[in-house]
Write a structure and sequence with these properties.
The protein is mostly helical. It is built from 5 helices and 2 strands; from the N terminus they run H-H-H-E-H-H-E. Helices cover 71% and strands 4% of the residues. The model is unreliable at 1-6 (pLDDT under 50).
């Protein structure tokens, strides 16, 4: 096996691993994000066997932070992979741009929430409510767009046609 094919095989394996972790991180973020609201305990979902941890605010918060770190790492990997390695081979589809815009909004509002938790920063109560509604609305839109793309087999990227 020559160097080129071995590096392609390694890149393909790394990409496959990242593509499995991305939906898992989204699932973890959605599950723990909704756990920040008291819906699991209120609607008795936390009483299902194995789901009691969903009613614990601190547990869901730290798992949400862990999922956010994983999501940021994966998004960084995909961005660098696209711009430095794959830009000539693939192009982003319209549904990919829409999902990127929604995901960027989620990340920005999430970062603002983390900043809000530092004691040296003060956000007005109205801004916090606005931020909360934006974050939740972007998450719901992202999940619905991804469901649509899953059902209708819309991809983030497509192969560029090379004319020689």
């Amino acid at each position: 096996m020559n160097q080129s094919s071995r590096s392609n095989a390694t890149a393909s394996f790394e990409n496959r691993i990242a593509r499995y972790f991305f939906p898992l991180s989204i699932l973890l973020m959605a599950l723990t994000g909704f756990g920040q609201m008291p819906i699991y305990k209120r609607y008795y979902m936390s009483e299902l066997p194995g789901f009691g941890w969903l009613a614990d605010f601190i547990t869901t918060r730290y798992l949400h932070y862990l999922g956010a770190a994983l999501l940021l790492a994966l998004v960084s990997y995909f961005v660098f992979d696209y711009f430095f390695l794959q830009r000539k081979n693939i192009k982003v589809t319209l549904s990919g741009y829409l999902r990127m815009a929604l995901l960027s909004g989620i990340i920005i509002t999430g970062i603002l929430f983390v900043i809000k938790n530092f004691p040296v920063h003060y956000f007005s109560p109205q801004f916090i409510i606005f931020l909360n509604l934006c974050h939740l609305g972007l998450v719901m839109a992202f999940l619905l767009v991804n469901l649509y793309c899953l059902v209708f087999k819309k991809k983030w990227t497509m192969t560029r046609l090379m004319h020689k």
